[in-house]
Amino acid sequence: MTARNHVNRYKMNYIIASLLLSACGKSETPEPQDSQDPAVGEEMGACYGNQTCNDGLSCVNDMCVLDDSTDSMDMGSQDSTQDVDDMAAEQDAGVDMPDADMSMADMMMEEDMSEPERMRVMESEPNGGAMLDEVDPLNANELGVGTIGEASDTDVWFVDVQPGKFYKVNLHIPEGSELDAHLTILDAGRNDKSAGEDYVKIAIADAPEGDASMTFLTMGEGGYYMIVRDARNVGPQMASVGSDAHTYELSMDELGIQDVQGNTLSFDRTVITDALESAGDIKVYPFSANEGNELVVDMVASSDDMDGRLFIYSDTEKSWIARQDDRTIDNVNPLVDAPLFASGVMWVIVENTLPEATALEYSIAAELVVD
Hints:
The protein has helices at residues 3-23, 70-74, 77-92, 104-112, and strands spanning 57-60, 63-66, 119-122, 136-137, 142-147, 155-159, 166-172, 181-187, 200-204, 212-217, 224-230, 247-255, 272-275, 282-289, 294-301, 308-314, 319-324, 335-339, 344-352, 361-369. By secondary structure, it is an alpha+beta fold.
């Protein structure tokens, strides 16, 4: 233990003892030192009556300490005394005190690390989206709680978000739930088009009774729908599953571009290999360009397990200005080859459209033709 820590601990014990005696109505005069305590005038001992100490020591707060520790003892002494006063008051009130060896900084750090609980928003039926008002609103800091309570039930949530933001949506299956997670995200309709005509993405659980999650970039105005179903009710099987035991929790967290950014993209057609972390993730490649430049982006998946999709997002337009899914009917690898009709910061967005995909490696090469 360093001299400074020893002094602080000794001071704390001394002050706490004095305060407790005062609270109990006893004399504040300390008990006589036992034979093992430092002598008056010596290091860690009490000061002489004229507030002096032996050579090489200084009197600080009625205690003799080394001269070179004086500055460190003086700094924050008032705050530490107040902390001790508060601790003594809590003990007098019957509150359990933490270990005296635990610093105030440690206690504050433990308190700050606790994540605030999300506000729970319960679904309200009907919310199947048959009418525009049959949806439940949800914000990024909230937790949507619902149940696929009847056979083939569908729950629709609506999020009104600003364009140009990255979000990770998670459909969590609580312990004991019988839901087989199936999550769909689609635009709520923009540019006089119906919902889902501009953007659709699906995520399913990666394991039985597991969660389903996806990451996406918000583009354009109008917000997004998040649709929750049981996977067994989707597709040709139409199992008509649903009960009070088919419960779920839906949440959405904003990400920074550093959470989704891929390798540095070169525009000399250099081939770069990369991979998505999961079937629902995306990778982003930022660049700058001017209106009229021609952009070529060629993406090839490492296997047929992945069906890639490309978007060119313009920060100026707050939406995509070019996109491509399958280059031909027999080739699902995307290829963008288009003139740009905007200038400024842009992003090449790579994503996968097959929710069951597990092999997510791909190569990408790009060229920017500047006139």
